[in-house]
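Final report, Chapter 2: Outcomes

The project's central promise was a pipeline that accepts a single protein chain and returns its three-dimensional structure in a standardized token representation, suitable for archiving and comparison. That pipeline is now operational. To close this chapter, we reproduce one record exactly as it appears in the project archive, with the input sequence first and the structure output second.
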Amino acid sequence: MVADTTKTSALAANIIRCQYPDVDIPEVSLTEFVLAKAAERGDKPAIIDGPSGRTVTYVQLVSLVRRVAAGLAAHGFEKGNVLGIYSPNVPEYAVAFHAAASLGGTLTTVNPLYTVRELAQQLTDCGAKYLLTVPPFIDNARQATESVSSVREISGPPSGPARSSPRSMISTPGAWPT
């Protein structure tokens, strides 16, 4: 008992406290938190793609997340499934992330500089069932998934070849920005 008290006191003595109050972390999912005030933010930019300047507003983000989630669900994605996102940072990355998370899915974000071997290893380690990518990475994605039996489907933007396209993963035509 004395040892436990001494250990606790020693740990407490090593905690560094900030001068500001602790941050309140609400008991909601990340997606619920991010989209909670989307309606009041309306047409304000939620995501701005730096290189292109393309903007997704809060209203658009909510709509896209819901539509992509519906499309993923239509393809069999469900709570507990793993979606791999093998893409640079583009607005669709956040849409796919929140769509899968809203369905109770797990996400594995893959470094876009990974080799085929590294991609295959990550997909194997996490048991990914779906992989979302972009046209420049589709060849690596296909090669990597040849050795990963858990991946059921590879998707990419409508312009890129894949087993199916994100348009087929979205319940409403034209939902995926191009």
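Archive annotation: The CA atoms of residues 20 and 64 lie 37 Å apart.
This record, like all others produced under the grant, will remain available to the consortium after the project formally closes.
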